[in-house]
Amino acid sequence: MSDQTTSSTGTWIAETLYSDWGQQFRVGKELARVKSDFQDIVVFESNSHGRVLLLDGVVQITEADEFVYQEMLTHVPLIAHGAAKNVLIIGAGDGGVLRRVLEHKTVERAVMVEIDGEVIRLSREFMPGISGNAWNDPRAEVIVGDGIDYVKKAADGSFDVIIVDSTDPIGVGEVLFTDDFYQNAARILTARGLIVNQCGVPFMQADELRETSLRRRNFFPRVGAYVAAVPTYVGGFMTLGFATKDADFTQADLETVRARAQAAGIANTRYWTPEVHVGSFYLPPYIAEQLPA
Fold it and tell me: Which residues form the PABS domain (predicted)?
């Protein structure tokens, strides 16, 4: 569970992701503290970031800045693909990725597979604004189950885009960073298909981006990353790693991105813009050097 302390300034919850560096939130009210079959889950009301979800002591999402992560994890791959109709989401139990995927009117089917039903239940109860009406969209199929097993059994070429919103490669999220998973992901993607997942904050987790990219390169001709600045993922830029069968994934120019966003009906975003989209692929050297040559 996350570390909790009480002082003269109130009750504080400290994130436990790193042993030597971290952040803490002053708790307005604890809303839920559950030990599921897979992980420890805490939801609390903070005085600075609205409601916050922690899994095994690590911040997953806050109401204040969720739009940064959700928009970049979703809009970048879908707009970069340009014609995605079938999308697979693994994890993302808060429903925010599902909501953003379904904002794309070009998407015909969105399958979401979340292993921990308690994450879905608690998110729907305590953080409903993150998912909006996504749960009730007829294009959505929500499965409480093992994403690894789903990918193994899915038909060849059945998805255009796979979005993995998981914890770091420890505990319940570890199997989503294996050779077996990426091999099956490549198999079930279409000829222009691509997969995106979070690869950590490289200032603190450079090995995560490096090792994930090397693994995926065994099954995809092009791997890389783009960045997003999410305030509650401490350490600077977060990397969103991608692997694609289409070498032109990052090559869409600004006018093309604008046209695709208009066709998809994407507007009123708070972080993603066509300009941010294009710029996010230009990596600082300390990040770029973690990618295979």
Answer: 10-245
Residue 94 annotated as binding site = yes
CATH code for position 205: 3.40.50.150
pLDDT at 85: 98
Assigned domain for 4 exists: no
Stated pTM of the model: 0.94
Strands 10-14 and 24-35, how do they pair? antiparallel
The count of structural domains within the chain is 2
- Considering the candidates 65, 116, 160, 165, report the single residue annotated as catalytic: 165
- pLDDT tens-digit series, residues 215-265: 999 999 999 999 999 999 999 999 999 999 887 777 889 999 999 999 999
Q: Is 70 annotated as a binding residue?
A: no
pLDDT for 173:
44
From 16, 96, 99, 12, select the one nearest 55 (Cα to Cα): 16
pLDDT the model gives residue 251 = 80
20 is catalytic: no
Which regions of 166-269 does DSSP assign to beta strands (E)? Answer: 189-198, 222-228, 238-244
Q: Is 167 known to sit in a ligand binding site?
A: yes
Q: What separation in angstroms does the CA of 158 have from each of 54, 62, 107, 221?
A: 33, 33, 13, 19
Does 4 carry a binding-site annotation? Answer: no
Q: Are residues 70 and 53 in the same domain?
A: no
Same domain, 25 and 38: yes
Q: Are residues 41 and 140 in the same domain?
A: no
Residue 151 lies in a domain: yes
